[in-house]
Structures are given as structure tokens and as C-alpha cells.
Amino acid sequence: MEKPNLKKNQELELNIEDLSYEGKGVAKVDDFTLFVDNALPGETVKAVITRVNKNFGFARTLDVLKESPDRVHDIDAIYAQTGIAPLSHLKYDKQLEFKHDQVVTDFNKIGLKDITVNQTLGMESPFNYRNKAQVPVRQVNGKLTTGFYRRRSHDLVPMENFLIQDTKI
């Protein structure tokens, strides 16, 4: 496979075919794989390439041109910036299917094809379940501010509701 002529910061339209084990959308450009943040299978997105490696690359969604019926809009986009809830844009029942399929795939990869994997058990509410957190604190404009780091950086994204953390935290 020859790597297509893709460059960092190049914008292109992509059809998302699958989800990676990290929950990134998977698109192909001339059989070259791109992993796309904030994209779901069945979507067409306008994306910008953020990195190109020898065998695969990464991109970030700029706009969703054709939306998946499994996309959720009621979660604040701030969580997608930090990566603390990488599947928050996917309906909860589809998240459970995704997790089940990941276990089946992992078993298949190591030759355990005859194992029955039960469906993933869900919760009444998929929020506020974590009871431990390491929350960065920074001084911003003379005031202590909590939040989480923007993906792949040490830039603080200020927030007070951590979505998946127990509210007592």
C-alpha cells in the first residue's frame, strides 16, 4: 500500500466506516487509515488532518455533514475536548454494544473464538459513577480553577462538573 499524498492541516471530506478501540472514527483514503476524533460510523465529516504517520494518520472533525442516528447532542462539547468521556457523543445503548464487540474482537485476536461473551451490563444512569479523580488545579486570572487537560496537551479546560465523577468529588 502506498501512502496517499496527505499532509498535516489538510482538510477533506471523510466517510466514517467504523470505531477504533479508542472510540475514534475510522476512515479510509485510498486504503490509508485515518482515525478521526468525534466521528461515528455512517457519518460523513469535514475533517482536518492532525498527524500523518507511515501506515496511518489522525484527523479532527470540523463539521458533521451527514450525521449518524446514534449521535447524542445533549452532552456538552467540552468533554470531547478533554477525552474524559470519549464515547459521550454515542448513544448509551450503542456504547454498550461497542464495549461488548471490543471484548469479542480481543478474544478472537488471541484465538478464543468459541467463547460466549454476554451482553455488557448497563447502568440506570451512565454518569457520576467514578469515585476517584485526579483533577488538575491551576491559577487562572488570580483564581484557582479546576478542569481537565485538553487532549494531547497540558492546557487546562476549565470545568466544575466532571460528568462521570461522583458529584461529591
UniProtKB/TrEMBL annotation:
GO molecular function per UniProt: rRNA (uridine-C5-)-methyltransferase activity
Keyword line: Methyltransferase, S-adenosyl-L-methionine, Transferase
Protein's UniProt keywords contain Methyltransferase: yes
Stored SUPFAM superfamilies: Nucleic acid-binding proteins (SSF50249), S-adenosyl-L-methionine-dependent methyltransferases (SSF53335)
Domain TRAM: 5-63
One GO BP: rRNA base methylation
One Pfam family here: TRAM
InterPro entries named in the record: NA-bd_OB-fold, SAM-dependent_MTases_sf, TRAM_dom, U5_MeTrfase_fam
UniProt similarity note: Belongs to the class I-like SAM-binding methyltransferase superfamily. RNA M5U methyltransferase family.
Annotated PANTHER family: RNA M5U METHYLTRANSFERASE, TRNA (URACIL(54)-C(5))-METHYLTRANSFERASE
The protein's name in its UniProt record: Class I SAM-dependent RNA methyltransferase
Originating species: Companilactobacillus halodurans
